[in-house]
Amino acid sequence: MITVSSLSKEFNHTEVLKNIDLQVNASEIVVLLGPSGSGKSTLLRCLNGLEELSGGRFEVNGIGVDAAAPRRTRTAAYREIRKHTGMVFQQFNLYPHKTALGNVIESLLTVKKMPREQAVPVGRELLKRVGLAEKEDAYPSRLSGGQQQRVAIARALAMDPAVMLFDEPTSALDPELVGEVLGVMRGLARDGMTMLVVTHEMKFAREVADKIVFMADGAIVEEAAPDVFFEQP
Ligand code: ADP
Ligand code: ADP
């Protein structure tokens, strides 16, 4: 589903991703661990076209992006990839002037050009899936951080993505709200969603991941099944 080959990324002549090779198969949950600044977020952002890669190539859901290709070829590929990829950030990034339901159906209306009467039932179903059926009319400011993040997940799911990318989705939450977001992510994993997750939640990583990828200083230094990874001295 995701194949990364010799990917590198420079910021101001400093290489922050070095020769990254990574594979995420369909329905796999891969958790990226590593110290702050090791390049986890940049890797996710490259896959979604939020950052340009400096070298190498990758493929998401059969759509290839190559650093050596002309920029407009890559731009077209990123556009396609975003249609098949849901991304959830540390900050929830909801539209403050739209209700929960409005946030969830926004991309259905604007990207998929779905008529509103068709989008609303889809949006309601997605809110139900993240446990927020009764909050459809609430504005983000009236929702807890955990609820806002669940709306953000429902919004990402609205495009019916083949892959979900999570960049520290619980790091901005009060501890008591982390569980409700991880619960939704566990549900997605059970449903067979392909997921690449950056998180500091070790219990989630240990229990849900099929594979742990450990990064340090812009490189992948270890890849192992969670039982092997967490058994080490
Ligand atoms: P992580 O997600 O593992 O904490 P990041 O991917 O955020 O790491 O950062 C990797 C490195 O890239 C860090 O040294 C960071 O300072 C640098 N970096 C990230 N984004 C930018 C940017 N827009 N411009 C310059 N340097 C950046
Ligand atoms: P109150 O309970 O204070 O009367 P409501 O929640 O009923 O306020 O909201 C009344 C109207 O105000 C809503 O229909 C909406 O248009 C607007 N509104 C409420 N909350 C927000 C918000 N966070 N951002 C923007 N508009 C809002």
UniProtKB/TrEMBL annotation:
Source taxon at top rank: Bacteria
Keywords: ATP-binding, Nucleotide-binding, Transport
InterPro entries reported in the protein's UniProt record: AAA+_ATPase, ABC_ATPase_HisP-typ, ABC_transporter-like_ATP-bd, ABC_transporter-like_CS, MetN_ABC_transporter-like, P-loop_NTPase
An example Gene Ontology molecular-function term: ATP binding
Annotated SMART domains: AAA
Pfam families: ABC_tran (PF00005)
PROSITE patterns, sorted: ABC_TRANSPORTER_1 (PS00211), ABC_TRANSPORTER_2 (PS50893)
Claim: ATP-binding is one of the keywords in the record: yes
Protein name, entry field: Amino acid ABC transporter ATP-binding protein
UniProt organism field: Paenibacillus medicaginis
